Amino acid sequence: MIKFTTLTAALGLAASSALAGGYVAPVVEPEPVIVEEEPASSNAGLVVPALLLLGVIAAVASDDDDT
């Protein structure tokens, strides 16, 4: 009977210390979302040739060869 009481006491002490803290929900921190934005382009590479083309068209249209 003493062995049974000792075993019961040891299991009782071990069980109470194992459950002493209770349940704690894990803390999950959200990862920051990184959005890479492309720099805004003004399409200046198309504006200059378009203006030159308009200038050439205007020069050809205003050419007078009425001799």
From TrEMBL:
- Give the signal peptide as a residue range, or say none if absent: 1-20
Q: Which parts of the chain span the membrane according to its record?
A: 44-61
Q: What highest taxon heads this organism's lineage?
A: Bacteria
Signal among the record's keywords? yes
The entry's keywords: Membrane, Signal, Transmembrane, Transmembrane helix
Q: What is this protein called?
A: Ferrochelatase
